[in-house]
């Protein structure tokens, strides 16, 4: 069964005039239903994550300041959004959606959230339009309640998952793997368990070879029992911020490699959408929907 987290709050920032391109979160469900890949029963509506849940991998002092809207101006600038109650609530919905989709993945093999991939939020900071880290929080939840004991976070967004790396640096139950543009944001990187910094304009063949070899090595050496996949589509040649200029077919093959590896080893995988900044919204939506199509085909959903 296909299970996807979605709430209308995921797209609230479009209506408030923020610069981050939230429109895709409204269009992806419509496109999935239009193509017959999903219906209303595929979607579930997350609730507000509790304070305790938000503190699973985040500093309680930082979370308290978020909840009370008392972050200092320097941190608000670092995040990049004007701080508001609706924005904090949106982030809490995303965290709950990723936790619940992770639990659905345990049942069905794979599950999604339309939003998420907020990988720039670290233990005690927000950054890059990310207030709290959804996949890191869900990993903390799975560990706390013993749904998993060895978690692999695969981050293939063009930007390093610096917040995820910050949270799990030195952690022996969570392995962070980030493959990203070396010269792209964030310009000060954190240390993942495995970082692969890519040169601008890397060729499609080089990218796929590096990815496949890395996935084989990590799965063999770490032996995860759960995977989180950050499936940003800002690696595309159409993306205005990505600088990798990779083809749509390479993005397709990238997703296929991840899902086939998880499926082969019978490891559940939760998928968050991550970034995408192509000037044409159709390029972003089509690339994200392609990720759904591949998973649906591999898992026979």
TrEMBL record:
Q: Which UniProt keywords apply?
A: Hydrolase
Q: Tell me the domain of life.
A: Bacteria
Q: Which CDD domains match?
A: HDAC_classIV (cd09993)
Q: Does the keyword Hydrolase apply?
A: yes
GO MF, any single term: histone deacetylase activity
Q: Extract the InterPro entries matched here.
A: HDAC_classIV (IPR044150), HDACs (IPR000286), His_deacetylse_dom (IPR023801), His_deacetylse_dom_sf (IPR037138), Ureohydrolase_dom_sf (IPR023696)
Q: Does the keyword NAD apply?
A: no
A Gene Ontology biological process in which this protein takes part is: epigenetic regulation of gene expression
Q: Which family does it belong to?
A: Belongs to the histone deacetylase family.
- State what protein this is by name: Histone deacetylase
What organism does the record attribute this protein to?
A: Sphingobacterium paramultivorum
UniProt lineage: Bacteria, Pseudomonadati, Bacteroidota, Sphingobacteriia, Sphingobacteriales
